[in-house]
Amino acid sequence: MKHLLGVEDLERSDLEELLRITDSMVEVSQRAMPRVPALRGRTVVSVFFEDSTRTRLSFEAAAKRLSADTMSFSVGTSSVKKGESVRDTVETIEAMGVDAMVVRHRSAGVPDQIARWTSCSVINAGDGWHQHPTQALLDSYTIRAHLGGLDGRRIAIVGDVKHSRVARSDVQAFTLLGASVTLVAPPTLLPPSLEGWPVEVSHDLDAVLADQDVVYLLRMQRERMTEALVPSLREYTACFGLTIQRAARLAPHALVMHPGPMNRGVEIAAEVTDLPNAVIAEQVRNGVAVRMAVLFRLLAGTELGGAGAAAPVPEVNAEPGEDHG
């Protein structure tokens, strides 16, 4: 596989292989000199038509830790402001000699279209309400690290599912890895149709809370809303916010997760983010290692495919004392 455009393109064996490679990348990230020469001579460019903090910075950190050269495109300071099309922008960037484009866009399907226009690898870093595959990978890795795997686990995804690309990718990844997923939201914050979604649905957070291994909170994405979908944020919090009182009812091993950015006091109470079982900062840390694994898998001469054969990770295991450039 040349691109990573969505979780729907992957088999379970592909996910497991990426998680296995991530184990090696976590080890690299923990070294005093967290850098290996695996992608020396390769160039990775961030092509972000939409704002980002975590995803953009972690992809850039991942590329640098693999010794790739990096470039960064920002729409606010680009010729897009002069009317340049997405296609002309992409072809201009490719002409500079790049091996991978990490693409984020507010419209669904743009990374797929870019993959048809370019000969380099394309990684979807979020497109509209559609997909965010590396977020699903880092979430799966974080759960696996704490609970030993996702088989048989029960995961509640709570909040604004309607506008969430994270929810779509997570549902696909979690269920592919053997988990049972329940969407918890008011009807107005669910997609118009859940046909094909392998999930259960609840409108009552309190009814499902105690049985979950993971409670995954989603942000109210008011910038994507074109109408008032809840009476008020106060009422939303009263019914669907993870307050400190609700968190006390979770099983001792249950994890609290959030993709960020958080609206503290809305979908999650500030005190909850400080609890030992809240692994939100760890999700961010694991994001770098997961994105290292994706870049390595796409650019280091091994391929993603349904066979799931264990790929060698030779250069990742270089000694930390080597001169990696």
Briefly say what this structure is:
The protein has helices spanning 12-29, 54-65, 86-95, 110-117, 133-147, 165-176, 205-208, 233-240, 244-247, 280-299; strands at residues 43-48, 69-74, 100-105, 121-127, 154-158, 180-184, 199-202, 214-217, 255-257. With 325 residues, the protein is α/β, with parallel strands linked by helices.
Average pLDDT rating: 89
Question: What string gives the helices and strands in order?
Answer: HEHEHEHEHEHEEHEHHEH
What is the CATH domain class of the largest domain?
Alpha Beta
Strand element count: 9
> Quick one: CATH superfamily of the largest domain?
Aspartate/ornithine carbamoyltransferase
Helix content: 25-40%
- CATH topology tier name of the largest domain: Rossmann fold
User: Spatial order of the strands in the main sheet?
Assistant: 7-6-5-8-9
Number of helical runs? Answer: 10
Summarize the main sheet.
Answer: 5 strands, parallel
What is the overall shape?
globular
Question: What ranges have pLDDT less than 50 throughout 5 or more consecutive residues?
Answer: 302-312, 319-325
Distance between the termini: 29 Å
- What is the oligomer described by this structure? single chain
As a percent range, the share of strand residues is: 5-15%
The overall number of domains is: 2
Judged by helices, strands and strand pairing, the structural class is alpha/beta
CATH architecture label of the largest domain: 3-Layer(aba) Sandwich
Radius of gyration: 20 Å
